[in-house]
Design a protein that fits this description.
The chain is built from 13 helices and 18 strands. By secondary structure, it is of the alpha/beta class. It folds into two domains: 295 residues, TIM Barrel (Alpha-Beta Barrel), CATH 3.20.20; 58 residues, Alpha-Beta Plaits (2-Layer Sandwich), CATH 3.30.70.20. The protein starts with a helix and ends in a 5-residue tail after the last strand. The chain binds flavin mononucleotide.
Length: 368
């Protein structure tokens, strides 16, 4: 078995990362010390908070947890520190501590022209360009490519019409890879006691991140990986080792984390690294690299048939599967599993709500 370091080793462009985990742009990247803390906890690289011509002033409040699974809504803007401070002190300090810094720049070509040469000179190893508007992204990449040979990541947004079509256009303009993706929105939640929005963004609107957005992001990662061979940093809703494996199978080469480290704390990262290695063991894989994009070939195979699997010892009699059946087709409990085949539509919901995996609905040939 390869050493633990080897198993998670990631080479992104020409950068040798200590792990595939990349701290995504957000409040945990607000200055040099926060970048250094992420590096010490095992991040392979860190993206700065987005730098713009003028520092941000954020509305109050601007981040809120909106569900038990810690999905977030935020109306946070770009860096509150001026870009010149990043250039003069923050990026050099982080680089001196061994951090691989990816500088995030938004949101216009003019700001790329102004900030990109300075952050690269200060030690940033790559650029990540971010825009609210897909039309400006092409110009931003063109501008950046004229300025540097270093890797340029385009951060794609799930809120754009056709991010994959844009990705292909960006490829012709010299983009090196993609960060997929930004938070989802605009979204709204209202506090029914105060009648105010939960975050005080423009018109009370904010942007969704964390577990709720993972299926949206996975869809785009798989689509992107299908259409381009450029590296993809999968970012959006990743919290558990299972999420890491899922994102990698969809085609991500590196794993971005933002909300989950905000809600669990940075010292959750070493735990996530350990759990990812344990899960790889359990699933019988040596490295993340060997499962990158395996979904893409799997989905092209003929659709399998499915079968029920029931393990009596695992059943806790919670009744959730019975409640979930829209057709009254199955009964599961202390007396076992019985199915009225003439009523069952093979929808699969019963197996998916079982908390102990006593009941599962699996592709033929697969067993838990
Ligand atoms: C509070 C907060 C602030 C963020 N600030 C930025 C930012 O300045 N620049 C940027 O490109 N993305 C920013 N993001 C988006 C994240 O980098 C990431 O794309 C998104 O949250 C999805 O990942 P997650 O589900 O792991 O959080 C921010 C996200 C949050 C939650």
């Amino acid at each position: 078995m390869a050493t633990e370091e080897k198993r998670l080793e990631t080479i992104l462009f020409d950068m040798h990362l200590q792990s595939p985990f990349i701290l995504g742009s957000g409040p945990l990247c607000h200055d040099a010390n926060s970048l250094i803390a992420a590096h010490k906890n095992g991040a392979g690289a860190v993206v700065t908070k987005t730098l713009r011509a003028n520092p941000a002033i954020n509305p109050i409040p601007h981040i809120c947890s909106v569900s038990k699974d810690k999905t977030l809504i935020n109306a946070e803007k770009w860096s509150e520190l001026p870009y010149q401070t990043w250039v003069d002190t923050e990026i050099p300090k982080a680089c001196e501590s061994g951090v691989i810094v990816i500088a995030s720049i938004g949101h216009t070509p003019e700001e790329v022209q102004l900030i990109a040469p300075l952050v690269l000179q200060a030690g940033a190893k790559a650029l990540e360009l971010v825009s609210y508007d897909e039309r400006t992204m092409l110009d931003m990449v063109c501008k950046a490519r004229k300025l540097t040979d270093r890797p340029i990541l385009a951060k794609l947004s799930p809120n754009w019409n056709a991010p994959e079509t844009l990705a292909l256009q960006l490829e012709t303009k010299g983009v090196s890879g993609f960060t997929a993706m930004d938070s989802v929105g605009p979204v709204l939640r209202i506090d029914i006691h105060t009648r105010r929005p939960l975050v005080e963004g423009e018109n009370g609107r904010g942007w969704l991140s964390g577990p709720a957005i993972k299926p949206i992001i996975l869809h785009h990662i798989a689509e992107l990986a299908f259409q381009t061979n450029l590296p993809i940093i999968g970012l959006g809703g990743i919290e558990t080792a299972e999420d890491v494996i899922e994102m990698t199978m969809a085609g991500a080469q590196a794993i971005g984390l933002c909300s989950s480290l905000m809600t669990h704390g940075l010292d959750y990262l070493p735990l996530l690294i350990r759990r990812t290695l344990e899960l790889l063991d359990l699933l019988g894989y040596a490295t993340l690299a060997e499962i990158q994009g395996v979904f893409l070939s799997e989905i092209q195979k003929e659709r399998p048939s499915y079968h029920f699997q029931f393990t009596q010892e695992k059943c806790i009699g919670c009744n959730l599967c019975n409640l979930a059946c829209p057709y009254g087709a199955q009964y599961t409990g202390k007396s076992g599993f019985s199915l009225k085949k003439n009523l069952c539509h093979l929808c699969g919901l019963c197996g998916s709500v079982c908390p102990t995996k006593a009941l599962s609905f699996l592709p033929t040939g697969a067993f838990l």
